[in-house]
Write a structure and sequence with these properties.
119 residues, alpha+beta, 3-stranded antiparallel beta sheet, 29% helix
């Protein structure tokens, strides 16, 4: 019950009631990615994503990015997207998490990299 109430009043957290109804009535499931996000399309050609968990646009991997934006990518059309062992898996934006990039701050980094000119 609490989830249903949250769905009505908090549009920024997850899908809204309107999106749920639109998906049930008109949406056709086109696929799902590794993160669990589901991709839908209606008869008019509108496309949307139902995110698993919180909404974050950086959770859309490269395989689905061109599809959601109606961009024709010749490489994707000619070849199946192939993952090589040297490729890193897609990660959403890590800012604000414990995995965020933090450069090492040591004493040498704060020292001047030059000497001032003395007259």
């Amino acid at each position: 019950m609490l989830t249903f109430i949250k769905e009505i009043f908090t549009w920024w957290n997850r899908q809204t009631l309107g999106t749920r109804l639109d998906t049930l009535l008109f949406g056709r499931l086109k696929g799902e990615d590794d993160f669990g996000n589901k991709y839908y399309e209606d008869k008019k050609g509108r496309r949307w994503v139902i995110y698993k968990g919180e909404i974050d646009a950086t959770k859309i991997p490269q395989e689905w990015f061109s599809w959601i934006h109606h961009t024709k990518n010749k490489i994707e059309n000619l070849h199946k997207i192939k993952k090589y062992d040297w490729q890193i898996n897609h990660k959403p934006n890590q800012t604000g998490t414990k995995n965020a990039y933090k450069p090492d701050k040591n004493n040498n980094a704060t020292k001047k990299k030059y000497t001032t000119w003395n007259s």
